[in-house]
Specification:
The chain is an alpha/beta fold and 212 residues long. The protein is 23% helix and 35% strand. Strands 1, 2, 3, 12, 13 and 14 form a six-stranded mixed beta sheet that branches. It has a six-stranded mixed beta sheet with strand order 5-4-8-9-11-10, with helices on both faces. A two-stranded antiparallel sheet has the order 6-7. α2 crosses α3.
Length: 212
């Protein structure tokens, strides 16, 4: 599959590259016709740093971020994002620090925070950081978790998002649907590739893909 991969660069930063593999892929919530590969962005120093730099521009005037909540392996990006926001004096209230944390998932697949981390959620303004957003259903789960721990949603940021908003929540991203107009998502029951008899190439989750 890798031989089919193409790369696109961010409009304002040639150092930020997104890998795209066309095909038929099944996620937890939908079927998509592209695997959006951000492995390099999540795992390599320069790519993560430059991606965070682009996201920081979107929150340059937001001084209400206490915590960056990282999902789908975005911790390195989150650390650089916190650094950039702090360096420029934005995203901070009264010079306070920004926490960068990741939720834990229990045996029932529920997101939880241990007692020692709850201080970074309770009555705090939280920026959700995600790798990709296709349908937005994962955002609902995240928001419900924040409400349970009395956290306030300050924004949703992603490397790539196929949608601009979900249930009234604006999604800020480095790469948008306009950067990949051919990207399509559909439920398994309504997938046109399945209807055409095209076999699924791979199962996709936040860690990557597994060929079938």
């Amino acid at each position: 599959m890798e031989e089919r991969q193409i790369d696109i660069t961010a409009k304002n930063n040639n150092s930020v590259r997104l890998g795209l593999i066309p095909g038929h892929f099944a996620t937890n919530h939908s079927h998509v016709n592209y695997f959006v590969d951000i492995t390099t962005i999540k795992t390599q120093y320069r790519a993560a740093r430059e991606t965070a730099r682009e996201l920081a521009k979107l929150y340059a005037h937001n001084k209400n971020i206490d915590t960056i909540l990282c999902f789908e392996g975005t911790e390195m990006i989150g650390a650089f994002l916190a650094r950039d926001l702090c360096l420029h004096g934005s995203g901070m209230k009264g010079g306070e620090d920004i926490a960068v944390i990741t939720p834990e998932t229990n045996m029932n697949n529920q997101m939880i925070f241990r007692d020692n981390l709850q201080k970074h959620i309770y009555n705090k303004d939280i920026l959700l950081l995600m790798s990709t957003v296709s349908t937005g259903k994962s955002i609902t789960r995240c928001v419900e978790c924040l409400k349970y721990y009395s956290g306030r949603l300050a924004g949703v940021a992603a490397v790539f998002s196929a949608i601009n908003e979900f249930n009234g929540i604006v999604i800020d991203s480095v790469f948008h649907q306009d950067d990949l107009p051919e990207y399509k998502t559909a439920s398994a029951a309504e997938c046109p590739l399945c209807a055409s008899g095209v076999k699924v190439d791979a199962i996709v989750n936040s860690f990557g893909y597994s060929k079938i």
